[in-house]
Design goal:
The chain is built from 3 helices and 2 strands.
């Protein structure tokens, strides 16, 4: 993955970032992602912030969600809050093999 361009959205980091082809965005994350999505010929991927996912879903910028469930989840944010649940439908689910 280090050969792919990377955009980091953060309100706390300062550049330069220690990653080849990394761009730091510190303004309106939703506007920045909307611009990236409009300009990109390939699907975008995101890893990390639940609050960012929620903002992107509310803005209609999420086309697909792949959720990985870990045995222990703590906190109160949750990916799918009640107000967004009705707009999304379950497409498929498959277990991850445990004999790796």
């Amino acid at each position: 993955m280090r050969h792919l361009p990377l955009t980091v959205v953060s309100s706390t980091l300062e550049g330069p970032l220690d990653w080849p082809d990394a761009t730091l965005v510190s303004g309106d994350a939703v506007a920045a992602i909307a611009k990236l999505k409009a300009e990109s010929d390939v699907p975008l991927r995101s890893h990390g912030s639940l609050s960012l996912y929620q903002a992107l879903m509310a803005a209609g910028l999420v086309d697909r969600v792949q959720v990985t469930v870990f045995p222990v989840i703590t906190g109160q944010t949750g990916l799918f809050r009640e107000r967004h649940r009705a707009r999304h439908h379950h497409q498929s689910a498959k277990p991850v093999p445990t004999d790796r």
